[in-house]
Design a protein that fits this description.
The protein is α/β, with parallel strands linked by helices and 971 residues long. It contains 39 helices and 21 strands. It comes from Sporolactobacillus shoreae.
């Protein structure tokens, strides 16, 4: 009030205000004053009227509820005005208020009709096709029969997302554009397809709208082709565009266009898209004047961050942004539905009844699935494929998914105590006794024995039966380790007389057996013997295949237990059952009592060669006895050495280590590790699967010594190797020439290749092997290993090796007539009677030039980045100076030459790949070498190394330089 009085006073007493301004503002101020005086009264009236209006709304709603049956075709504003004696516009306002509060629903036709929500079915029936819902609230959504049942989560985690999507789809005019985001595999593409099916299923949608899908990643590497595919191509737009081509936008006109991986669109393409969204206009690629029209709903999908991958101008034009939740955020019931749905799909493909073991089902429901629904489906398909293959091979009536069919990352999700709550899920049998919670061995063998595959004349082999026995032992061992030892947990599985007898045997034999005999053994043995008794009563027990002999101490114990059970409960066990009992006793020993035996390491070149071979062997043997180490071809020997050393030091309590390797520097790694760690290590080269299986089998017996395991594996190689790998002459060993150098990869490999090329057909049985010799000790126990397998006729190389009865030929001597003739004579006198020929092609050479030529030839074969000829010319003069200083003979010169060339090649490679050039070039022996290096030594080597650095753009570190100097002084 005071403010208004002050304003009027200022206004009418503005004597200093010019007349022009006073006349100009007169009308405005009069209106403003009127507004300021009247506004409070109007607001007060509105506030006092609001409760009355709401009360009137409730009265009208009550009246509509009572009289709604009088308006069978729906209530109109005219009907309500006539019934309540209201103005039509007032009645319309009341009806709209009730619609906003969702107490009524209305149609989009003329006249507008209103119904109660309980009349929605009637409302849907009354909507004419031409009056399809144009508001954002469709009356009734009809779900297609083949979509509602297949899309999981419509009534749970996805319900709000689906409701928003449908609201956007049925928005008036043409709907709202939708952007879907979420991790890979969550079902974005399927969600878009699901929305399209919903739209097509509506009864008022008479014309089927097109649904066009495209993954932008398909043409992401060619932006022009990508945009042409989406928007179309004009003839002549580029070379090869010989005709006009309609794009996806034109195909999706009056429908839905789904663009997956939309973030792969280039910025120019994203700009074209938001122009299409804004105006409904676009041009084909190559068009400049004509403009085309399109009316469609755009649905985009991406796995990337929206703000960082899409232009803001495009992002804000998607009215609705939906995030599809990953599988880990879906409910347990939904994941169960996914599993059941995918299993039904696979069963339909196989046309065979499909079963899945309960613990396998739990594994699928619990494992971490980073690939979400897509990965779950893929893992289920892999498991079904493996189970189906077993069905084809065994000829069973049904396909059963078992533990071995599951991928490792799925099976590993089950915790150690995954059987604790198994009892409530067990199926009672007809005699009310519950089944043993694993399939017994006799049922497994019965399904395999004599059955043929429907697709091939295949019969289960003894090897497959042996695999079944191994799997059965693993299952029993796993079950015995669960916490079900209490009597209430086991009474229902094992008959009372058998259980009592086993408990008594524990008391009688606890002190007699030289190993732990307790609850774990009782569980496993009791379950097996109960299955044996049940099958014997039915007369359907299949005989066990021959089981490998267990260690004698367990066989003796199993015999004592069998005699005790026969006397106590009259249970007679055949010999193979006793053998199986012995394995059960051994397999259930605590882990800390199994580590006293021989450890077997498999080390091979390749990214997964050792892992794959170990996986097969461990599966066959039923125990992880083989420890694989993979050595990628790009990995230096020193890195592998450290890796193996660390693994060995982590394993304590072993009686020895057997290393099974393939070729190269790995052959001598065992010797270095044995000296380094002070533990017994034996090595076998040229490993194959029979050797590995035999070594693993023997290592399972704790009392077997390293020599026993070694000899058994070696015997397996000789017994099972192909004839081409064995000596060709009866009663004689295969002849062998051994090439040696400091690394086993440089000069030794060069000599190896050269000798193999020079050997004639008459000496085709001669094998050549390259090995490493320690530069300090000049010793290699690998020669002794070769001696047991071959008849060594000569050792050739750059390192003098003393070996009884085996002549040594220096590498340089082979370049002379004397050396050539000497090796020729050795081959001739060792050749079997009845053959004679020139074993080596005459190749006499002489002088320093021939030494350079030989070194260059060798480096060309073992290096990838070094130019051997340039390298040889670079170092020849400086090498002669070092040769005179250290008094090297030609053999040492050749060895150092090859070693330095290999080193420079590695350094060049490291500059290209960013790897450490020192890895693998400095061995543990080099680091601990006691030979001192002075500054004078470095000054002597510096001219040679500087020249190499200048020409080949490499850099010798202090550490690398000192290692070279020590190697040169050790000669």
């Amino acid at each position: 009030m005071e403010f208004r009085a002050l304003y009027f006073s200022l206004f009418f007493n503005s004597k200093h205000c010019p007349l022009f301004f006073r006349l100009s503002w007169y009308k405005i101020n009069v209106k403003l004053c009127f507004f300021m005086y009247c506004l409070p009264q109007k607001v007060t009236a509105i506030i006092s009227w609001e409760p009355q209006f709401m009360q009137k709304i409730e009265q009208i709603y009550s009246t509509i509820q009572q009289q709604i049956n009088h308006w069978k075709d729906g209530l109109t504003a005219a009907d309500l005005a006539e019934s309540l004696h209201l103005d039509r516009s007032t009645a319309s306002r009341y009806l709209n208020e009730l619609t906003k509060s969702r107490k009524l629903i209305k149609s989009g036709g003329k006249p507008v009709r209103y119904w109660l929500p309980s009349q929605s079915n009637t409302a849907q029936a009354k909507i004419p096709a031409e009056d399809a819902p144009q508001s954002g609230r469709p009356l009734v959504i009809h779900f297609p029969d083949n979509a509602e049942t297949q899309y999981i989560g419509t009534d749970a985690s996805l319900k709000p997302i689906i409701e928003k999507g449908m609201a956007a789809l049925f928005y008036p005019e043409q709907g709202l554009h939708i952007l879907l985001s979420g991790e890979t595999g969550v079902g974005k593409s399927y969600f878009a397809e699901y929305l399209a099916k919903i739209a097509a299923a509506q009864p008022w949608n008479k014309k089927p709208a097109p649904f066009i899908t495209f993954n932008c990643a398909d043409y992401a590497q060619n932006p022009e082709l990508l945009m042409g595919h989406i928007f179309g191509i004009k003839k002549g737009a580029f070379t090869g565009a010989t005709a006009d081509e309609a794009g996806l936008v034109e195909q999706a006109n009056h429908g839905i266009l789904f663009l997956d991986e939309i973030h792969r669109l280039p910025p120019s393409g994203q700009e074209m898209l938001f122009y299409l969204i804004d105006k409904g206009l676009y041009r084909r690629l190559g068009e400049t004047s004509s403009i085309r029209h399109a009316k469609l709903i755009l649905i985009g999908a991406t796995t990337e961050n929206l703000e960082s991958t899409l232009l803001p101008t495009l992002l804000r034009r998607f009215s609705l942004k939906l995030s599809i939740p990953p599988l880990r955020e879906r409910t347990d019931a939904e994941r169960e539905d996914f599993l059941t749905h995918f299993l039904k799909q696979e069963a339909k493909k196989m046309k065979v009844p499909l079963l899945i073991e309960d613990h396998c089902r739990r594994a699928f429901l619990k494992y971490a699935c980073p690939g979400n629904i897509g990965q779950l489906k893929s893992d289920i398909q892999i498991s079904c494929a493996r189970a189906f293959m077993r069905h084809l091979q065994g000829g069973t009536a049904k396909v059963t998914i078992q533990s071995d069919d599951l991928p490792p990352h799925v099976l590993s999700s089950l915790p150690d105590n995954n059987m604790e709550n198994e009892a409530p899920h067990l199926v009672p049998s007809s005699n009310q006794n519950e089944k043993i919670p694993i399939q017994n061995i006799y049922s497994i063998l019965a399904s395999m024995e004599g059955k043929e595959s429907p697709s091939s004349r295949y019969t289960s082999s003894d090897q497959e039966m042996q695999l079944a026995v191994n799997h059965y032992l693993r299952e029993l061992q796993s079950l015995s380790e669960k916490r079900l030892e209490s009597e209430p947990g086991w009474v229902r599985f094992i008959d009372h007389d058998l259980l009592d007898a086993l408990r008594d045997s524990e008391f009688y034999f606890r002190d007699d057996f030289p190993f732990e005999y307790g609850t774990k053994q009782l569980i496993a043995i009791g379950l097996h013997l109960e299955a044996y008794r049940q099958q014997s009563k039915k007369g359907s027990r299949s005989p066990l295949p021959a089981v490998p002999h267990a260690e004698p101490v367990y066989r003796t114990a199993a015999g004592k237990l069998a005699d005790f059970l026969e006397k106590r409960i009259h249970l007679q066990l055949p010999n193979r059952e006793k053998e199986l009992l012995a394995h059960l006793m051994a397999s259930t020993l605590p882990e800390n009592k199994r580590d006293n035996g021989v450890l077997v390491y498999l080390i091979t070149h390749g990214r997964s060669t050792a892992s794959s071979m170990a996986e097969v062997t461990n599966y066959l043997l039923g125990s992880p006895v083989i420890r694989p180490v993979d050595m990628p071809l790009t990995e230096a020997t020193g890195v592998t050495y450290k890796k193996v050393r660390q693994l060995i030091t982590q394993q304590k309590g072993s009686s020895g280590i057997l290393m099974l390797v393939d070729i190269g520097s790995l052959v001598t790694m065992g010797d270095a590790l044995s000296r380094d760690l002070g533990i017994p290590i034996r090595t076998l080269a040229n490993v194959n699967l029979p050797m590995l299986i035999e070594a693993g089998r023997k290592s399972l017996i704790p009392d077997n010594s390293l020599e026993t395991v070694y000899n058994s594996a070696r015997s397996a190689f000789i017994a099972l190797a192909p004839k081409s790998q064995l000596p060709e002459h009866h009663g004689e060993k295969q002849r062998l020439i051994v090439t040696v150098c400091f690394t086993g990869e440089g000069t030794a490999q060069l000599l190896h290749d050269w000798l193999e090329e020079q050997l004639s057909a008459e000496d085709g049985d001669v094998a050549v092997r390259a090995i490493r010799v320690d530069p300090v000790s000049k010793d290699s126990t690998m020669l002794e290993t070769f001696r047991n397998q071959y008849r060594i006729i000569a050792v050739v190389g750059t390192v003098q090796v003393t070996f009884d009865d085996v002549p040594f030929i220096p590498a340089l001597e082979l370049l002379t007539d004397d050396g050539h003739t000497r090796l020729h004579k050795l081959l001739e006198v060792s050749r079997p009677v009845g053959t004679s020929a020139d074993s080596l092609e005459p190749d006499p050479v002489d002088g320093d030039q021939e030494l350079i030529k030989l070194a260059g030839t060798g480096l060309a074969k073992i290096t990838r980045f070094l130019n051997p000829l340039v390298f040889s010319r670079t170092i020849s003069s400086d090498f002669n100076r070092l040769k005179n200083l250290y008094q090297w003979d030609n053999e040492i010169v050749l060895g150092m030459w090859m070693h330095l060339g290999s080193l420079v090649d590695r350094m060049i490679q490291s500059g290209l790949t960013g790897s450490d050039p020192v890895d693998g070039l400095i061995t543990e022996e080099d680091k601990d070498n006691e030979i001192s290096v002075t500054q004078k030594d470095r000054d002597v080597w510096q001219p040679l190394l500087s020249q190499i650095e200048s020409i080949f753009s490499v850099s010798f570190t202090r550490r690398l330089t000192d290692a070279l100097i020590r190697l040169g002084k050790a000669q």
